[in-house]
Amino acid sequence: MKYKSTRTKDSPLLDSAEVILKGIADDGGLFVPETIPKVTLDEIKSLIDKNYCGRAVAMLKKFLTDYDDFELNECVELAYDWFDVESKVPLTILISDEQHKDSPVGVMELYHGVSSAFKDMALQLLPRLMSKALKKVGETKEILILVATSGDTGKAALAGFADVPQTKIMVFYPAEGVSKIQKLQMVTQTGKNVNVTAVQGNFDDCQNGVKEIFANENIRAELDKLNVKLSSANSINWGRLVPQICYYFASYAEFVKSGSIKLGDSINVAVPTGNFGNILAAYYAKKMGVPFKKLICASNINNVLTDFFNTGVYDRNREFHKTITPSMDILISSNLERLLYHETNGDTKRVKNFMQELNTKGKYKIDNSLKKKLDKIFYATYVTEEETTNIIKEIFDNYKYLVDTHTAVAMMSVGKYRRNTHDMSPVLVAATASPFKFTGAVLKALGQPVEGVDDLEQLDNLSFFTKKNVPKNLAALGTAKILHENICNKEDMAQAVLKFAAE
Ligand SMILES: *Cc1c(COP(=O)(O)O)cnc(C)c1O
Is the pTM of this model over 0.85? Predict the structure, then answer.
């Protein structure tokens, strides 16, 4: 399997190891597989008796053809080793009553990794794939991953790269801009190759600082002397997308195994969407042959994607809202570019034009025939803050099942879809964060007091009220040793990078 760019017709064909290391194509486009591999129902059937790692390897093999089985097995086993449940991605099936037993909702819990959010699914595997890729392409330099984080990605990336050979990771976060739990998650990170630095400034300062370092030739030259090369672990990296495709197959197999659906039954999928990575993985799974009918693209009030699918116009010129689903507060959904590429049958010229218009005018419009194609695949809707809060309580009251705010957006979207279309097919819902990761909003939704209650205390309160256990990684935060106390001015970030690179 070879990969090419979304923006140039005859762009060079690269192996997966190369595209995982490069991250982004030389023309600024995203890497896409030359063809989308097919998976038969028989192959899906053969997944049923495998565990999560076995299922993941079977699907990774389709895309990462330059890695052998042994390598893939080793990467996957190490990646998901820590997960706090044996099944790695448990599927909880909710059925409202006997009358609706043909309309089960399967909740695919993607948050049992070290950071308690779904980013772990990809960020635990990507570093290991990168480390192997370095050997494959004969790279002898050390890779230094730079991350600017507003809170969530930082921990997942740190935990993923910790002690991975031939890599180092450095995370910058805004000193006053992350929650107490997010900060504790990062500053207690162990590993010989990790650095966590607070920046006196906001998230934009962190992000701009990192961008400037990437663009600065002098720093690159200095790093070169130290035998270090910069890289990133963005959600547009193919190595982050491909691990996500796996869980759609694994969960479909699990759904069949549960007896709630039969092999071959068509189901819908609902995904709380921000950067369009997770739902794009569902799209690839559908294209490959898993019987997915509609992909429900669930947004919060930053509903740029809802408008795009419903009107054909992508327009980022709008007010930005800070919500209780911060990981979906995004106005540029970068991974959409890959969808446009595939659904225009690889029309790189059109994709490039769309992206140029997005860059210069902040918007673009697709034509009617393309919109019709997307209508067949996607159903897009958005959910208000109040609806999000209400559905958390409703699900808890009805099922004694607890969801976080992001998952709640997807659950609410399923309700909207079913009411509007009367399609009551089974649904697979992506649960993207532990409810204990967004404790304040979840407690509030359940009518519990939060004002003046410390973040760590909130964990205990939520556990007490719902009789659910705090995930062990979060429970340990109160007593974990603080290992990183670095703080720097935004002007000094480059200096901090050079210092860490030399260590
Ligand atoms: C990142 C994230 C999302 C959005 O996923 P995308 O792949 O960016 O669409 C949703 N929920 C949570 C909890 C996340 O961390």
Answer: yes
